[in-house]
Amino acid sequence: MGAVHDFVSLSGSMRHEGKSIGYIIGEYVGERGKNLLLWFAFLTIILVVAVFALVVGIVLNAFPSAATASFVYIALAVVFGVYLYQLDGPFIPGTIVFVTGVFAGVWFGINNPVALFPAVEAGAYPDGTIILLGFLGDGAWLPGAVMDSSAILTPNVAGWVPAILIYAAVASALPVWTLLQPRDYLSSFLLYAGVGGALIAIIAGTLLGTASQPLVVADSIAAFEGFLGVPAVSPFPLFPMLFVTIACGTISGFHSLVSSGTTAKQLNKESDARLIGYGGMLGEGLLAAVALSTLAIAGGAEAAAGGGIGGALPNFASGGGIILTSLGIPTSFGAPFMALVLVSFLLTSTDTAARLGRYMMEEIIGTPGSGTETGLSGGLSSFARGRYTNPIIQCGLGYVLVISGEWATLWTLFGGANQLLAALALLTATVWLANWDESKQLISTGVPMVLMVTITVLGLSWVAFKEQLYDQLIMGGASGLGAQVSASVRVLLALVLMYLALSLVKIGYDNISNVRGGSGATPEPSDD
User: Fold this and answer.
1) What does pTM read for this prediction?
2) Residue 527 lies in a domain
3) Contact, 446 vs 278, CB < 8 A?
4) Membrane: present as a keyword of the record (predicted)?
């Protein structure tokens, strides 16, 4: 389903002049359907930008060597872009030189780790870590910073978050050749080395026992005990909650935004969509299997906030480092390398999300002229969609979400929102195929769409009515006015998401019924 989803999102966008899925569905069901989907996607993007910036900060805090390697990697990507597009340098020799430079950057980072502010807990950083902003104090004055090593938003993380958001805003405004294309190309070699190396290492370590510790699932990971999982930890039904928890490794609505937002504008020919869309998603499924393996080896998250996001993310690098010891690579190199693999794709996702948000706002408001206005003049609408100003809006809202802690309130709904977006992308493809030709079969996109709508609506229903309304409000789990308001907001947002999705499904179903119901002609889009 994920491969079909990514492929039809990419090919559908190419057949509609590189427009987004929101624009495509608007072509057939009218402005109301288009704007519903675009606003839904835009608000989801802001949450993605916020949480991914936080996630990068957490990883860079846990692995200061990856921070240095990231600086080197980004600098090399910019130089590589100039080398290819301005100096017209030969491609293969350039690839060899710059890819070698990226891997050398890992070694350089290990020997020169950097952090923005001193660690809250003594000894948390490697020896010799360079504190870049130490002259500004301990960072306790940063918005949202907590002087507690068990907290997620320690001063160093609180310092990295705005830095990452500023990077994302700048990167999203630059032409794709300056950073996005060369960086993603170099990232692909990190991915091949990380995933391919981990797969080979898992086989070697299992069969030959060459790893530094046995490659078995850690004792700290409890097994699921029946349909409701692990009752002592956080009981929830395996179906549907598992299917709104794992996203990018199976099927993810965010992929439809990337496919129709940036990828469709960069392909040389339409036939490339098969390998990049369908094949790329199969590759990401392999990456998901490797990610599960690294966490299985590393064990339960025991770091920040009693585990959770603050502990799980660094464990990806820690587990990956242990796995790579099967190939004779010491954890002192393997773990920072896997951290860089993780950070490189998180950075890519963060600034790509900001770029996609700008594209969506352009489609919502419209783009008179070339559509490349800066946003620094021309009124409110120009500011909202401008190349330089729209990222400021997104990253500013994202920063408020992070420092206020409200990202945690919304993140519980992100899985459902993201998978609903996948369902709506499949709906868009089904409507497009139905209007394209009567001979086009709709099973390949229609069946996954129905499954995804059903699963996500059930998942959001569990979050809204069981976890929030019943557990938090009726049974008194939410103690205090703030917690009760937070629970109420989650219930309301879940209901809004379900209404939004079901409304679009109804609009799409009516269109398909009219087209395939014997009327012959495609009806004019409705603006109701």
Assistant:
1) 0.86
2) no
3) no
4) yes
